[in-house]
């Protein structure tokens, strides 16, 4: 079958390939930029995690003590957990307010 010469011509195969290669290159650049940004923002988180890993044995010991204490006096453990959760929420709110003020 013949194609009408009045119809809009489709790009040639090599033109389409060049367009796709350009799109892929741009996506690669976008991924590299996003990876760099992610690494920069996660440095403080990684440092905090490494700091916590140093005190892992101490955390296990404290957790064990809390479990023993909680088994003996469950009401006081629940009270402590509620206070810790409230303190964490208060700290989070304070950080948000400080960010807004800056």
Automatic annotation (TrEMBL):
Pfam families: YqjK (PF13997)
Highest taxon of source: Bacteria
Official protein name in the record: YqjK-like protein
Organism: Halomonas sulfidivorans
Organism placement in taxonomy: Bacteria, Pseudomonadati, Pseudomonadota, Gammaproteobacteria, Oceanospirillales
């Amino acid at each position: 079958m013949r194609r009408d010469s009045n119809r809009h011509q489709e790009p040639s195969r090599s033109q389409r390939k060049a367009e796709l290669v350009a799109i892929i290159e741009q996506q690669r650049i976008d991924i590299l930029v996003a990876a760099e940004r992610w690494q920069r923002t996660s440095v403080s988180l990684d440092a905090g995690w490494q700091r916590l890993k140093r005190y892992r044995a101490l955390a296990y010991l404290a957790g064990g003590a809390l479990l023993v204490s909680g088994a003996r006096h469950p009401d006081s453990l629940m009270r402590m957990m509620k206070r810790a959760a409230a303190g964490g929420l208060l700290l989070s709110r304070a950080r948000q307010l400080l960010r807004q003020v800056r």
